[in-house]
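Milestone M4 deliverable, item 7.
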Amino acid sequence: MEDKLMIIDPHVHMTSRTTDDYEVMAAAGVVAVIEPSFWLGQPRTQVGSFQDYYSSLVGWEPFRASQFGIKHYCTIGLNSKEANNEALAEQVIELLPLYLHKDNVVAIGEIGYDDQTPAEDKFFRMQLDMAKELDMTVQVHTPHRDKKAGTIKSMEVCLEHGLDPANVIIDHNNEETVKEVLDRGFIAAFTIYPKTKMGNERMVELVRKFGSTNIIVDSSADWGVSDPLAVPKTASLMLKRGIPKEDVVKTCYQNALDAFGKNGKMKEEHWMKPNSIDQSQLFNDNSVLRGQKPRIDDDQIT
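Output delivered:
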């Protein structure tokens, strides 16, 4: 029997997902996730909403993931959609330094362009300056409309602000953008969706054509139609289609660890030497159990 691969999903919005998702992800080999801060489906109207959301990404959600044996990290930033409310965005930018130094924050993200407006450009640049000052990795959201132009603009602005391309993950790539991203020395990430944007069959062919260097597979699973198992399913499909195992490991595990582990907060030892699962533990007097019997791994060893 083939050894089960360890998987990292470096772009998944677990706040939007259920505990069932954590359980099936762990069973499929997912050992760690990175949750980019993002848009919640409707615009937030006050800075306190952002503050509570960021606090959950560095507090409750890592605890919730730990209850199912998964290590949780996040990226913090002002997303492009909400950059267009400039008065509120100014307040959110002031808030970011309070969170960027937290233990599980591995990058500034996801930031970039949506409609490529002047306001989006302004706050993207402000956050790139912040990343430069703090020597942090950047996770860039590329627009779903006019993607190629938006992707090229994103890279040019990063270079203009003095960022090392090797420390910038350009996300939401497709066949139209990948060559340009890799040729310029950036890291190319791909979000795999069940029916739109980028599918796992197409991802297999991209790895076959471009290899595994600087390529990352992620799910971007959120509150919409998406699949939290997109990364392990793509890894499995790659193996079935004859992609060498070493390339599968790089694109579905190692490249993400190398890219997001640069600030030393994300370490392999976190899941290689994990704490036992004990669902009787509490976070601010709350648990994930909802009256269910807790799973306590030590008690199950006979």
